Amino acid sequence: MSVAKVTEITSTSTKSFEDAVENGVARANKTLKNITSAWVADQSVSVEGGKVSAYNVRLKVTFILD
Length: 66
Fold this sequence. Notes:
The protein is built from 1 helix and 3 strands; from the N terminus they run βαββ. The chain is of the alpha+beta class. The chain has a 3-stranded antiparallel beta sheet, with helices on one face.
């Protein structure tokens, strides 16, 4: 039997939402073992001077406990 845990992380990119997701998963993979999935729970942008300055995502990452 496997036991999974879900943790929530936030990530930001100046390029795109996709890049923010990839950055978040890559960073989570440094400290969490056995990541099996991640889904975007929320996304938003930061605006400066009337232009998008950053793409922000809130991810829910699932990993299997040892």
